[in-house]
Amino acid sequence: MDVKERIAEWFAHFHVHPEVSWKEVKTTAKLAEILAEMGVRHHTFDDVTGVVAEIGEGDRIIAVRADIDALWQEVGGVYKANHSCGHDANMAMVLGALTYLQQEELGSKIRFIFQPAEEKGNGANSMIERGAIDGVSHLFGVHLRPQEEIPFGKVAPAIHHGAALFLEGKIKGEDAHGARPQQGNNALDPLFAIAQFIKTIHFSPYEAYSAKLTKVQAGGDSLNIIPGTASFAIDTRAQSNEVLNELKERVSEGIEAIGKLHHVEIEMVWSDYTPAAEVSEEAASLAAEAIVETLGEEAFAPAIITSGSDDFHFYTIHNPELKAAMIGIGADLGPGLHHPDMTFNREALDMGARVLASALQKASLLNE
């Protein structure tokens, strides 16, 4: 069986055996089994899912990360784990790159980080805490891209993800009878005020950012009760970490003011922060060279800028000296990432694996 066929086989397995964040137990076991069959040194962890493997020798370490978790979503009317973000493809491409590299000359160690819980936004931190990027100079990632970004056959040397942060809030007032609203503290009025307020936050038009309500819950079955409590959630995003931090402050200050104005208590919990990309020009340049040499100049696409987020960028937040880039693979992916019926051109898998292997080899052969 050639490498392309093995990549397709690995993808097929992971595709039909999805597991959600932090519960990738069988996925971890399968990865360890594949690595053992390939004769690759690797280790798992007692307290979290995921696998770290290495090939090559030397003091320098080049690394690549593949995310291994699936989403939990409704598919055909049934809620289940589903690889609609393409992490099954990412695992297959990284395993394919490893296979190609076993046949090549390497100038350093190459580490393969199969990371859990990207969809929760904190899986990268679990690998950082366990030393996965200790001693690493260059880090690469790979991800399929939706068709509106780049078509099949095109590959981008870097993805500039935006930063994301989520707010969960609860308004605590007091219920009142519909005939006597003065006796309570209405939760709906401050909720509507919050919805209007977040639309009034403005930064420079040259900055990409957004804040929007994504969940609202209030009231019960009785139509003559004015609810005193309500819960809500806000999704905030920005293309830079600096703008996201300022957006967070503005949203917090505004909601606090709305609470005082309406005489209600509003609890706020910010969570699931994912930083914006800090792309290394050197790593992106190596990826660009790999694309052209592997697939030809016609396959090269400019770096992608997207408001989507990925916890891959926690690695560079933790180590600002780390030279990192995530390679974007055009695959005619549609209707879109996270769509329950997402599909793509499977021919992209081998293309991605070969480009990734070339980029990793080039980084390993650098004289530093």
Would you mind describing this structure in some detail?
Residues 170-257 form the Peptidase M20 dimerisation domain. Pfam families: M20_dimer, Peptidase_M20. This is Amidohydrolase. InterPro entries: Amidohydrolase, Bact_exopeptidase_dim_dom, Peptidase_M20, Peptidase_M20_dimer. By secondary structure, the chain is of the alpha/beta class. The protein has 2 domains: 3-161 and 277-364, 3-Layer(aba) Sandwich (Aminopeptidase), CATH 3.40.630; 163-274, Alpha-Beta Plaits, CATH 3.30.70. The protein is built from 9 helices and 17 strands. The strands form 5 sheets. Strands 1-2-6-3-7-17-8 form a 7-stranded mixed sheet, sandwiched between helices. Strand 4 and strand 5 (78-82) form a beta hairpin. Helix 1 packs antiparallel against helix 3 (87-101), helix 3 packs across helix 9 and helix 7 crosses helix 9. The two termini are 37 Å apart.
Sequence-ordered SSE layout with sheet pairings:
Elements: H1 3-16, H2 25-37, E1 41-43, E2 51-55, E3 61-67, E4 71-75, E5 78-82, H3 87-101, E6 109-115, H4 123-129, E7 136-146, E8 155-156, E9 159-161, E10 163-172, E11 176-177, H5 188-197, E12 209-218, E13 225-226, E14 229-238, H6 241-261, E15 265-274, H7 281-295, E16 304-306, H8 314-318, E17 323-333, H9 348-364
Parallel strand pairs: 3-6, 3-7, 7-17, 9-16
Antiparallel strand pairs: 1-2, 2-6, 4-5, 8-17, 10-14, 10-15, 11-13, 12-14
Short summary:
InterPro entries: Amidohydrolase, Bact_exopeptidase_dim_dom, Peptidase_M20, Peptidase_M20_dimer. This protein is α/β, with parallel strands linked by helices and 368 residues long. It has nine helices and 17 strands.
